[in-house]
Amino acid sequence: MSVIFEIFLREANAEGFSSSGGVDAEAFFKSKLYRKSIEHYSRAVKDDRIAAMEYLARGEAPRRDIEKVMPGTKALLCAALPYGHWPHAMPSPNEGPRYSRYVQGGDYHREVTLKLENIMRKITAEHNELKYRICVDTAPVLEKIVAAACGIGWIGKNTLLMNERSGSFMFLGVVLIDATIGADVEVMDDSACDGCSRCVDACPTRALCAPMKLDARRCISYQTLENKSGPDLSIGRANYGNWVAGCDVCQDACPVNEPLRRPPHRSLRWSMNWNEHIEETEAQFRSRVQGTPLECMSHERFLKNIVIMGGSD
User: Fold this and answer.
1) 94 falls within a domain
2) What is the Cα–Cα distance from 135 to 301, expressed in whole angstroms?
3) 236 falls within a domain
4) Residue of 140, 139, 175, 169 lying closest to 156 (CA atoms)
5) What is the pTM of this model?
6) C-alpha–C-alpha distance, residues 254 and 261, integer Å
7) Which of 57, 118, 178, 190 is the right S-S partner for 131, CB 3.0 to 4.6 Å?
8) What is the pLDDT of residue 104?
9) CA dist 194 to 156, 191, 198, Å?
10) Cα(150)–Cα(145) distance, rounded to whole angstroms?
11) How far apart are the first and last CA of the chain?
12) What range does the domain containing 151 cover?
């Protein structure tokens, strides 16, 4: 293990990451895990299961060639930040609008990036010749597969990375560096998913069309957050439940997550009823979502979700 890798692991723990690891690029891209994963990715693109997210199709080539992401990459470092324990409001299906847990906290892009920047500043203070690039959903990198190759977790049947410590409630950050770290692929045991299909069975829109196979066109998270035209009603409005921003159904169904869930915390920020959402002004909406992952969503786009899911005209 290199000194750079040792510092990264130590400082990742100090920054509050629950798990961290690394793998040399040559070992990663030659691994069975990577080869199988990139073929699954390619098949999803060809089958049009990526919906209108054309950036995923454009990103296939660099995901096959890390040199297109950062020339000279020799290793990939990865760290996972848990979020499942954050206080969150989770009304029952008949109570009111529901938000995915991850949108109720701070913007993870900023938070994870800041923590990784802190770590890399300490590393480059001793190794100032080191070049690096931080990727937090900001570059064409297979973050979940990198994390799995680093032994941080395994890929569940709902296509999410998970481990016994944090379940699937984790944000991932990857750092590309131009130095080897002496680390091979370390795959975690995934037997916890054996014989279980609760996540697949629970998906109300059948977006999980098979274990480890997601069709984004039917995914509530995609429809409420990514689809610029708004939720596709051909899926059936009743199947959306009352999710207005993201969806946690497959995660809530997962037995690995059961010991990690907390009782709901009634946060006023996320516990408004349907009428309060409809009456909310754009200025009030912007103030409410400031600093969260919903900050980039327009009020008009969000209000469309509220009207559709609330059954209002």
Assistant:
1) yes
2) 27
3) no
4) 169
5) 0.93
6) 11
7) 178
8) 87
9) 10, 5, 11
10) 9
11) 61
12) 3-191
Q: How many domains does the chain have?
A: 1
CA dist 1 and 150 (Å) reads 13
CATH code for the domain of 74: 3.40.109
State the number of CA atoms in the 13 A half-sphere of 3 facing the CB. 7
Give the long-range contacts of residues 186-191, CB within 8 A, separation 24 or more. 186/21, 186/23, 186/149, 186/150, 186/151, 187/33, 187/148, 187/149, 187/151, 187/154, 188/148, 188/151, 188/152, 188/153, 188/154, 188/163, 189/154, 190/154, 190/155, 190/156
Is residue 312 included in any domain, yes or no?
A: no
The burial class, CB within 10 Å (0-12 / 13-18 / 19+), for 260 is middle
- Rounded-to-integer distance, Cα 290 and Cα 139, Å: 24
Burial of 9 (0-12, 13-18, 19+ CB in 10 A): buried
Give me the long-range contacts of 294-297 (CB less than 8 A, separation at least 24): 294/103, 294/245, 295/107, 297/225, 297/245
pLDDT single digits (tens) 149-172 = 999 999 999 999 999 999 999 999
Give the CA-trace dihedral at 153, 216, 200, 88, to 10 degrees. 70
Q: Percent of the chain beyond pLDDT 70?
A: 93
Catalytic residues: 137
Count of all residues that appear for the chain in the document: 313
